[in-house]
Structures are given as C-alpha cells and as structure tokens.
Amino acid sequence: MAEGKKLLRTLAGEVQDVPPIWMMRQAGRYLPEYRATREKAGDFLSLCYNPELAAEVTLQPIRRYGFDAAILFADILLVPQALGADLWFVTGEGPRLSTLTTQAEFDALKPASDVHETLSPIYETVSILSRDLPKDVTLIGFAGAPWTVATYMIAGRGTKDQGPAHALMEENRPLFEMLLGRITEATIEYLSRQIEAGAEVVKIFDSWAGSLKGADFDRYAVEPAQIITAALKARHPGIPVIGFPREAGEGYVGFAKATGVDCVALDNSVSPDWAARHVQVDGCVQGNLASSHMVTGGQALVDETRAIVEAFRNGPHVFNLGHGITPDADPANVQLMIDTVRGA
Which has the closest alpha carbon to 274: 287, 257, 260? Predict the structure, then answer.
C-alpha cells in the first residue's frame, strides 16, 4: 500500500533508521541497458516520447538496484517544446532551442492549457509505470522550475552563467516576467496531469537557481515554486513536492517554509552538518553525495556516504546525490553506495 512506501513516509516527516534512496538521473547513460534502449529508440527525444521505451528505461535502475523510488524518464525542455519552441538535441553537445527575446516571439507561444497534446505520451509513460512498478517503489514525476526553463528558452541552449536570461531580465523585465508566468502556468498543468496519471510525488528542478541573488532569488526562484506547490496541493491534496534550488547556498535556509515544499533537495556545495542545522530543522531534506564519487568509488565513497547518513539521522532524510549521476559513472559504485546506506 502507498502508506507503507518508505519515501512517502519520509516526505510526511517520519524519521527512518535507514533513509530511502534514489538517484537523480538514475535512468541514464552510465547503464548499458539504457544505452541499448536509447539506440533502439533512435534518438533522445524519440525515447522521451515513446511511452513503452521511456517506461522501460525508468524501470531499469529499479530492477538492477532496488531503489525506493523511480523518477519518470523525460526532460525539462519538453515544456517549452509543448509551448511551441523548437527543440532538438545535438549529439555530444546537448539541447538546442529556438530563442525567445522579443514580445513577438512570446506572443507566438501557445497558452499553458494547450501543452497536453504534445505531452500526452509523457502521461502515458506515467500510467505504465504506475501499473508496472513494484508496489513498494514510489513514482516521482518532475518538471523544470520556471527560471531554469526560461534560461534555456532565452539563450536557446545551456549557458555557464545564464547571462542571456539575466540580460533580458535587466533590459525587458516585463517580458521576462511574462515568460516566467507562462512557464509557471504550463508547469502546473504538466505536473497536475502527471499526478492524475499516477505520479505520487513531484519534484521541481531549479538547476540554475544559484545564479539568482537577493531579491531576484526570492522573486524568480522562491515565488514560482510557491505558486506551483500551492496550485498542485489545491488540486491534489496531500501530494508531496520536492524542491531543488541547486546551489542556492544560504537560500536553502527557510526555502521549505517560503514555498510549501515537503522536502528540500541539496546540492553538494553545502555540507551535511550545515544543512542539518539550518535546513533540516524545517523538515525533510534530500541529498547530497557528490556525483563524482560514482566515478571514483573506493573508501572515499563509503566514508562520505556514511557521514551524510550520520549528519541527517535525527530528521527526515532522503539519500540522494547532490546532482545527477554522470555518464562516466561505474554502475558498481552505485551498488556500493546503496550497500553502504543500507548497512550491508
């Protein structure tokens, strides 16, 4: 039963002797079975939009490792595509989007309520997973946070400092805020449909939150997360929400109270001891092993994993990495991490 699922109990505030564990990007290129399935799909976007194959790659790490949760295989840039942006992936370089820097380009976007036709295969993937996952495994849906998604839509690609988005914010703040508003509305629609299809938890990934400072962090990272969380909880009472304002630093403090999220995911730029004192006091935290340990392994992985579990043992904690696992990771190191957390 859902009530017995370890992740859901932790997100509700229960302190576990052994924390639930899952891993960002756990379905990914480090796994040979994923690479084989992606080859069958033809390309990354075809894999995202093929419900049977997307469900298969979501299930692969559950079969191999027995994680406590599965996270839907998709991409944060499917929302801008559903709003009308052109999206493609360049092998070895990552995503590319048509840029949005003018009022005319914004006016060409679809209304938020029109995203479902494009995204319907994603909801079908969620339905398949809801049916096929082991009964003790929690299904996590997700979306990108408005600020992070906007940085890609404005620049047309990932950028090191999110410079184009910051430039538009300064040069045409009304347009920038209209774009954030549209993404916020679309994200609520998208996540709500994922929940209706069977997602038991949703996570909001704000990968570039750390480049927002001061009042801009409050206005463009905290406020959209609060709006999305409140809307989802109004539509789906009891749905847990995980927020991940990556590299927020001091911005992690009070983030749960300000946004209403049930758990704050932490990157590895903050120490577990600091986060236990300043963030976990408000509730559940998730994290925060450096993903580099999945490449290097060894005693350092074991020691750091134990230190994280120990630091967070007095409050609700979901063990995870501080960022997604990288393609060069060794699958054996993932098993070592899991065995260490579970005390094997």
Answer: 287
Q: Is 109 helix (H, G, I), strand (E, B) or coil?
A: coil
Q: Which H or E run contains 284?
A: strand 284-289
Q: Specify whether 86 is catalytic.
A: no
Which pLDDT score, from 0 to 100, does residue 3 have?
59
- Report the alpha-carbon distance of residue 309 to residue 281 in Å, rounded: 16
Tell me if residue 75 is catalytic: yes
Catalytic pick among 9, 35, 38, 157: 38
Q: Which residues of the chain have pLDDT under 50?
A: 1-2
Choice among 9, 35, 64, 75 that is catalytic? 75
d(CA 220, CA 105): 21
Which residues are CB-neighbours of 39 under 8 A, at least 6 positions away?
none
- State the first-to-last Cα distance of the chain, in angstroms, to the nearest integer: 26
DSSP label at 326? P
Q: Is 190 a catalytic residue?
A: no
Q: Is 0.90 topped by the overall pTM?
A: yes
17 labelled catalytic: no
